[in-house]
């Protein structure tokens, strides 16, 4: 399936250079090729997929180290999964979930932990309130909300402090914030949080498994459709080619690549399909407009580490548990059953997010492993401490992602420089899930952003199609 | 005085490579050379000085497009000014200042506008309160404050909303925030603001002219001492050499430079003397630790445009005005008399900062000129609309600064990743005014940060001095 080459013959000038071979870049390139345009995709890493990466462990078990789920309403991703011959299965949910609160374990069913009636009711009420507020904020132009300035001046933490009554609900909403954004509530603008939630339907749909963003998984791994796209694009995808400079003008752009084979590519248009902060690594001549430069600096990636612990079997299912854990403290605040569809082995996937992730920096790989296995054991019992395999994926140390799962905006950013997010700069266009008009932050949003950028470029290219070198 | 060369002969391996020839990098390099070490300074721009840049206008008048003042307590900068044979003179303050409030002009004397007694008293009380709070927060390790988490969760805007009673004082404190940080109060953590203020003594000292950070100017221009340092360093300073990659290990580092003459330099240690967000443009192998990567993404530069309007004479002095303006709305919120010491011409310098600066993006050079001259005229009279010369310096569009005047931290950043600010990563050390332990954000802080980094490197270098190639 993977037919990309590391060093194709220099293709000469093309119609469009796409920077980044994540879902956004690959989708964009495919749409441009389908429209008869010549395209080169330049990818910094030695693989495609961006923040989506399926790794096969030494034992042969594939695990998704990055984005992995598909849910209702994600039609772009669902179509691509179908088209590329991939198949899905439901995330395991049968059984009770675990709540770890004040050091005590509780079992519960449904979306929200129930060990404390008031806390549970308050959490549900908070989610409802967030969902109602989010419906009023456009995910496309949140700065157009009549109350945008006030909402953007407020942090999510401020809203929580002012609105959420019980400590339990505050802790749960904070945990949800960390899991969704990889960031703490005080780091995020309320306007941004509402816009992001609306982009994926509602906050509730973002945190749901069944009926929400974590509903289904892909048998072949979430990177498989990206690999299939790369296969279709063939030699147009050039790996291990970090773009360091983009010289752009009215007639086109010259894109310089570093790495083992430094060289230059020329095109009429460029689509940069990477998180805003990662685009900050590229030198632009002439320099980008001030609002774009500010946006790049004010859209930091979240912090997240994803861990997988592989066991002989999903032993928690035998205990009536579904493998889900929500914790109010500790490093691992959310855990899911990530076993393969046939349950040939049992796998737990856990997330260390936000400040917890940053605190774990100093522990080192072994220190984190031992600490996190201890936390798994205190939730799922002593068997959890002895997995067959254990891997961590620290997105915060991935140079070409800068963190994960998504970028977040602090107070004041959307209203000040939000419009720079999608606005082209001359012949340079922007894609990537952070620019998506729906499901921003998700694979589905990456795909639709690639299509939107391709549409922009096709409308801008006045020369007849098919004149390029591909 | 300026003897640096663009293309020296490749110097072979050196003891230390300094990245950035602003005041931090130049001072660091000089200290290392004084200690007998071989040094190369790699500068991306075709000039030294970083955010300090004295430009001679077509008429021959020199103006400081960036940092320009020196005040009491800035002993590092004062010593360097002396040492390099430069001289200072007081910023012009004789006469009354102007306050533009609700569209009406008022004259006042002293630090704070006085047109409204309650507003004035409230502003003074607010500054006092900020000064008291700042004294409790360490400028070196603000995260060690017993209440650091709460203060870092709070934005400066939240504190203003909760503390400042009158709309007039709120507007004045907001204007001060924009002028000092190039950012809006909602973008900044209260812990950061207090730490920054303490770093320069107090918030009052940051905003004072006489007795404060704007007290004196340099006859030769604020870049002159930097040019003198560069002259001393001679061929060690390599201009037009943007660093794109730093490969680092136990035994040293290889630094790759792009630009017209791509090449590599080798050294035992590297000092990166640039704003944190600008260091994000450099690819590090191995990748930087997660907390450092987060810091880079969460320390955006402010937005500021500096304008100079040159007139035949400082006509406002004849009207009893000192050229200072504080406005509660509009683009130009603060203006100073920037005439040369001999008043051979009259010059007003104005600042467009924070959101105002971002809003002016779309106007273009001519649109901004005409808008800003209109604002000057409405304050200083119709003569102000017709300067002999008018220049703008948009730091927000300067690729190798990313904005100005300084970097700011939003809520949650200092407590989460603050310690990564100065902590070396293997053989890579960090300098720059953002890392300063005193006068962070000022030229003085840049200088002391360079000395501190040089001390770190000298302590780390175990080989006998003088073994390098310089």
Total beta strands of chain A: 19
According to CATH, what is the topology of the largest domain in chain A? FAD/NAD(P)-binding domain
> Overall mean pLDDT score of chain A?
94
Number of helices of chain A: 16
Strand content of chain A: 15-25%
Question: Which CATH class of the largest domain in chain A is shown?
Answer: Alpha Beta
Count up the domains of chain A.
Answer: 3
CATH architecture of the largest domain in chain A: 3-Layer(bba) Sandwich
Identify the biggest protein-protein contact and residues per side.
A-B, 51 and 51 residues
Oligomer: homodimer
Radius of gyration of chain A: 22 Å
> What form of chain A results from the Cα inertia axes?
globular
Largest sheet of chain A, described in full?
8 strands, mixed
Would you identify the regions of chain A where 5 or more consecutive residues have pLDDT less than 50? 1-9, 464-470
C-alpha termini separation of chain A? 20 Å
CATH superfamily of the largest domain in chain A: FAD/NAD(P)-binding domain
Helical/strand content category of chain A? alpha/beta
Portion of residues within helices of chain A:
25-40%
